[in-house]
Design a protein that fits this description.
Elements: H1 2-29, E1 33-35, H2 40-65, H3 73-88, E2 92-94, H4 97-133, E3 135-136, E4 142-143
Antiparallel strand pairs: 1-2, 3-4
Helix pairs in contact: 1-2, 1-4, 2-3, 3-4
Length: 150
């Protein structure tokens, strides 16, 4: 149970970082999208929580009623979470339909890539440190994991 909670927390932190980077890239790329510095973290948290809550419902509805739209549920949940975040928070403003569409696409694409790549980068860093430094046994002695290759 403890490991499950830790994994869930790690996944949420990765999702939060991915949503933050996606929103930041969209703010930089689109002149019609703005967020205040003071509300950025709050907006990212609101967006991430809303998206993580509504994504399963949108996926289930699409699977039941519109099978062809299952692949687009990430875009739909991003658009819905973005709309609800702008409605809840006064720090995030989006002007114009093209900006709404592009913001949805950019945030979805960037957050998907970050959420996919970040675990691999973390594991690569941990694995690299493990290979460089070796393992410690229970008695405190260091064991080199690559010693059998020499």
């Amino acid at each position: 149970m403890f490991r499950f909670m830790i994994r869930l927390l790690i996944r949420f932190v990765i999702f939060l970082v991915a949503a933050g980077v996606g929103l930041l890239v969209a703010v930089i790329a689109l002149p019609g999208l703005s967020v205040t510095v003071t509300s950025f973290i709050i907006d990212v948290a609101i967006f991430a929580v809303i998206r993580s809550v509504i994504s399963p419902f949108i996926l289930k509805s699409a699977a039941r009623y519109a099978r062809a739209l299952v692949g687009a549920t990430g875009l739909f949940s991003t658009a819905a979470a973005l709309a609800l975040t702008t409605w809840i928070s006064s720090g995030l403003t989006i002007t114009g339909i093209p900006t709404w569409l592009l913001a949805t696409l950019i945030i979805w694409l960037v957050s998907m890539l970050i959420a996919f790549l970040l675990p691999f980068l973390i594991l690569k860093g941990l694995l690299g440190a493990w290979l460089r430094n070796g393992l410690r046994t229970r008695d405190g002695n260091q064991k080199n994991p690559t010693s059998h290759l020499i």
